[in-house]
Amino acid sequence: MSYVIEVKNLSVTIKSTKIVDDVSLSVKKGEVFGILGPNGAGKTTTIECIEGIRTNYTGDISVLGFNLLKNRTDLLKKIGIQLQEASYPDRLKVKEICKLYSSFYENPKDFHSLLESIGLHHRVNTHYSKLSGGEKQKLSIILALIPDPEILFLDELTAGLDPRSRREVWDIILKLKKEGITIMTTTHFLEEAEYLCDRICIMNQGKIVYTETMSNIQSLSSKQVVLSSKDEIPQEAFMAIPSVEKVSVEEDVYTIFCQPDIFLKEFNKISSLGKYVITNINVKQATLESIYFEKTGEKNE
């Protein structure tokens, strides 16, 4: 299996506070990998370390086979970076910004063709201050593509955009994926992750608390039975039922990952559960949203 990004035991401590805590992850060539999590989870700090922007970390990072601490200059020729926050002088025109970025590389892509393919060529002579929010994000993608990267890093790409502009940017990312570019992105929009990502991880308080492919998450749909009991039921009692894949417990609520129809039939037959009083039972649809709120501890309001 070909991994183009490998991170092992990454930690970042700032002013005695651990911002990133023993993070390990890997990204396959050609996939879109998303890092989700609430504000302050460590998403941006993690991706900045992988990009080579940050060097105050412990752990090992390899990107396209390069050791970041030894080969950062070589790596920057092969990756494209869209920063969470970037601004330019108001009076600079789009073409002037593109020319400036092109001057940083020996063999830059033709920015006119990028402007055309991403739908911004009609704004080539427009001042930066006159661009809409969506147009500024499109420009940030174009600038990240100028080095003709093998990997594209996106940090909160669609934050602050209206729904129409957000969808336009998503379609651009999917087009880039079809061209074979590996994409790593951070986002707090769950719909964005579902639309774009092949695989996601969820971060909370500096740690990765969940990693899964989107196809597996979608296959979990309608595969949970949630029941409540005032009695403490050992997980082993549920795991003894053949259709049960996994059990999670939060206070007096038990979430059983299973085939609900099979489980409910078997559940009535298991005498070991007969001594426990079940106060409520229902079938629940597993979604990225429900997983996210479970893993981060945030409330779905």
TrEMBL record:
Task: Give the top-rank taxon of the lineage listed in the UniProt record for this protein.
Answer: Bacteria
Give GO MF terms, alphabetically.
Answer: ATP binding; ATP hydrolysis activity
Q: Does the keyword field hold Cytoplasm?
A: no
Concerning Pfam families, the annotation shows: ABC_tran (PF00005)
Q: Transmembrane segments in this chain: where?
A: none
Outline the extent of the ABC transporter domain: 5-230
| This protein's record includes keyword Transport | yes
What are the entry keywords? ATP-binding, Nucleotide-binding, Transport
Under the heading InterPro entries, the entry gives:
AAA+_ATPase, ABC_transporter-like_ATP-bd, ABC_transporter-like_CS, ABC_transporter_ATP-binding, P-loop_NTPase
PANTHER family named among the record's database cross-references: ABC TRANSPORTER ATP-BINDING PROTEIN, ABC TRANSPORTER ATP-BINDING PROTEIN NATA
What family does the entry list? Belongs to the ABC transporter superfamily.
This chain belongs to the protein called ABC transporter domain-containing protein
**Source organism of the structure:** Vagococcus elongatus
